Amino acid sequence: MPLASGLLGSATFWTILIGAVATLIGAALGSWLTNKFSNPKREIHFAWIQNVSLLDTPTGGGSAPLSVSHGTTTLAKPRIIDVTLHNAGKQAITASSFHAGRPIELDLDATIVDVLSVKTSPSTSIAPSWVISGKVLELPPCLLASGQIVDFSILADGNSDDPVVRSPLTDVEPVEVKDRPSRKSFEERFNKLDAVRDQITQVTLLATSVVLLMVFTIGFITFKDYQDGSFERRDRMEMACASSPSPKVAAALHCPKKP
């Protein structure tokens, strides 16, 4: 019991305990940061760039002065719809991310006549394949690289008042944005994230190293105290003070004064 009470009352003991707790917290924080940056969140953004009619609606109730045909078919309400898909996350979206192999659906709320163009950037990325199904443009399971931007320009026939994007991607919620993303702004964003990640990692490693060095030093000093018998002498002094020694002995041992 005297040894235990000596330990609990020792500044060295509490310093070691605090250092150990700080080390565990630092290790946990480092592990969380490593996991966060090693497994970044996947994000996919989409934007309706334009949705414009190719014909003006006549004000007098008559027929339009112009007509638009596709092949041999005359379109009643032709329009151009441009939509952009952007993998805004730092992790690629692969074919295995498509739940049950279902496609991404671009429901244009107007009959799709033709896909006029599909552009993708960067130039090293591969544009996804697509299938027209009535009013829906389907994108089967494919690879969308990190930062990849895909632009579709579509000819449709109808009003297209409420176009929507439906996604089967697991753990990825599509987010509608207003403007087409810039490749330059995307790269700048992730360069900043990389810089912040490196700084946090360096600070975490430095703090952990300092704490470990402190714990090692204190542990070494404590071990020397045990070897030198410092704790044993302290316990004997406490026992002597507790046995009501004479005033001279109490003064020599620096015993605390009793109330």
Please outline what is shown here:
Helices cover 39% and strands 24% of the residues. With 259 residues, the protein is an alpha+beta fold.
Structure, described:
The protein is an alpha+beta fold and 259 residues long. The protein has 2 domains: 106 residues; 116 residues, Immunoglobulin-like (Sandwich), CATH 2.60.40. It is built from 5 helices and 11 strands, in the order H-H-E-E-E-E-E-E-E-E-E-E-E-H-H-H. The protein has a 5-stranded mixed β-sheet, with no helix packed on it. A 4-stranded antiparallel β-sheet has the order 7-8-5-10, with no helix packed on it. Strands 2-3 form a two-stranded antiparallel sheet. A hairpin with a 2-residue loop joins strand 7 and strand 8. Helix 1 crosses helix 4 and helix 2 packs antiparallel against helix 3. It starts with a helix and ends in a 6-residue tail after the last helix. The N terminus is likely disordered.
Features:
single chain, 259 residues, alpha+beta, Immunoglobulin-like, 2 domains, 5-stranded mixed β-sheet, 4-stranded antiparallel β-sheet, 11 strands, 39% helix, 24% strand, rod-shaped, disordered N terminus
